[in-house]
Amino acid sequence: MGSMIDFKRPDGGRTKGYFAGAGNGNPGIIVIQEWWGLNDQICGVVDRFARAGISALAPDLYQGRVTAKPDEANHMMTGLDFPGATKQDIRGAAQHLKATCGKVAAMGFCLGGSLTVAAAVHVPEVAAAVCFYGIPPADFADPAKIAIPFQGHFANQDDWCTPAAVDALEQAMKKAGRKPEIHRYDAKHAFFSERAVGIYDPACANLAWERMTGFLQKNL
């Protein structure tokens, strides 16, 4: 349904991404990849948003590199320039969508969830954010500084984005006077991904999708 495009970054550089449009004037959303790269699963989420009436763009943060090997994925993630990805690639995607869309949101999974929080703090074009099981270091993106509507989806059986980390994020936002919408699922990390064999939870994934689309309809 969608296709690869290239778009301008704020610094004048170019980034590629997978885009599926839902028509001019409709809302837009930035879909931020997991640590595997811009793979078919993420492109499928982009297409799914477009079918739901939301134009979607997933920036290729790894510049064409994709893997299914955890060690390689971890190497690529740790080598990523997080400030550059947030303030150049993701902000460039937001500005690209803003040219033809109404309001623009950001969402992502795992690595992309962390960068969604970062985008909510650092990208002024983003009007709402939906995070799936990812939280960045507070010294890079303090959740207390999120001033836009925020929804989070987290797994109770997660040893990376732990329940304690989720509680801390929620408490930090509430202490700052924010009203985050946090959902917890009796599932494992990556429960939304059909590619996660033995982890994908269709019931939780479908419930999260319904909650997310309702949140976006309300805030976009």
Structure commentary:
By secondary structure, this protein is of the alpha/beta class. The protein has one domain: Rossmann fold. The protein is 37% helix and 24% strand. It is built from six helices and eight strands, in the order E-E-E-H-E-H-H-E-H-E-E-H-E-H. Strands 1-2-4-3-5-6-7-8 form an eight-stranded mixed sheet, sandwiched between helices. Strand 5, helix 4 and strand 6 form a beta-alpha-beta unit. Helix 3 (82-98) packs across helix 4 (111-122). The two termini are 23 Å apart.
Sum this structure up briefly.
With 220 residues, the protein is an alpha/beta fold. The protein has helices at 40-51, 70-78, 82-98, 111-122, 163-175, 202-219, and strands at residues 3-8, 14-20, 28-32, 55-59, 104-109, 126-132, 150-157, 181-188.
Keywords:
220 residues; alpha/beta; Rossmann fold; 8-stranded mixed β-sheet
